[in-house]
Design a protein that fits this description.
4% of the residues lie in helices and 34% in strands. By secondary structure, the protein is mainly β. A hairpin with a 6-residue loop joins strand 12 and strand 13 (159-165).
């Protein structure tokens, strides 16, 4: 169906991306090719944190870069440095010392990763599920339209914990059982603990950008609109 989980950080490049579509619970997708990790090492996430700010693993650090003028757009200032690849269900989260500021969420379908930036500093990254071939996740930029910690899909009668709605037709980010061989009906599924941490940080109106392999270097800027 799609390629394997890629490296989140590769040199100074940050893979940006985002996914959304007809939300639902995870559905088994058959005939998937083996998902091969990228050769650049990506780190094992912090031990699965509780929905409150989690203890920070010593292996998760931020590599800072010079900031660019605000008028350039949303500047990516740092990315989490991970020492192992992320497997399905894994995530890393470290907001320690990161200043308050606007939130940006990126989803890369090709790398199968979601990243969370606050004031340009990456504070979270996780492996994701996304839409199966018959119900693909759409690409583009989406504002968060609604937050619901205990949402249940009215299309599939399935729980969607810590739901962040992206479209009126059901595309959302929400907690899922992220396993190899699973897909969604178009939503972006993330580990439940990660979903809780993201839900706490995100606000209605925050931007989510979904791509299929777009790359942005640290110090570059995401367009303001």
């Amino acid at each position: 169906m799609k390629s394997g989980i890629g490296a989140m950080v590769k040199g100074a490049a940050v893979k940006l991306g985002i996914a959304a579509a007809l939300c639902a619970t995870a559905v088994v997708v058959t005939g998937l090719p083996a998902r091969t990790p990228a050769t650049a090492p990506v780190a094992k996430p912090v031990a699965k944190a509780a929905p409150a700010p989690a203890p920070r693993a010593a292996t998760v650090t931020a590599a800072a870069a010079p900031s660019a003028p605000v008028e350039q757009g949303y500047v990516i200032k740092s990315a989490l440095q991970l020492d192992q690849r992320l497997d399905y269900g894994d995530y890393a989260w470290n907001a320690e010392g990161v200043p308050a500021g606007p939130l940006l969420i990126t989803v890369d379908l090709k790398a199968q990763l979601i990243s969370v930036f606050r004031d340009g500093y990456e504070i979270g990254v996780a492996a994701i599920l996304y839409g199966a071939d018959d119900k693909p996740t759409p690409l583009g930029a989406f504002p968060i339209l609604e937050k619901d910690a205990d949402h249940v899909s009215n299309l599939y009668n399935a729980p969607m914990p810590h739901m962040l709605r992206l479209t009126n037709d059901g595309v959302a980010i929400h907690g899922s059982d992220v396993k190899w061989g699973f897909g969604t009906h178009g939503c972006i599924g993330v580990p439940p603990e990660f979903a809780a941490l993201l839900f706490e940080q995100a606000s209605v109106g925050d931007r989510v950008i979904i791509t299929n392999g777009a790359v942005l270097k640290i110090g570059d800027a995401v367009p303001a609109a």
